[in-house]
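Here is the promised in-class demo. Please do not try to memorize the tokens; focus on the logic of going from shape to residues.
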């Protein structure tokens, strides 16, 4: 029934609320799970003027991987 499931997250509690449900569905249907980190540039040091490499560098410098908690839960 499901082949691919996308979990967009901004790290908020609301976004985290869907993780268990999405992981359960992916497991039940042997679906591939993708996690997408969504940034609200109005509330972030990341801006629309930055190119891809600058965004990745900014995330790397923060020492956090925003998708890690979801990927850990999926494993």
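The designed amino acids, position by position:
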């Amino acid at each position: 029934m499901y082949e691919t499931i996308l979990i967009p997250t901004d790290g908020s509690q609301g976004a985290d609320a869907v993780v268990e449900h999405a992981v359960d569905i992916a497991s039940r249907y042997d679906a591939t799970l993708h996690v997408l980190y969504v940034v609200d540039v109005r509330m972030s040091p990341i801006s629309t003027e930055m190119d891809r490499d600058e965004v990745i560098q900014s995330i790397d410098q923060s020492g956090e991987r925003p998708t890690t908690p979801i990927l850990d839960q999926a494993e």
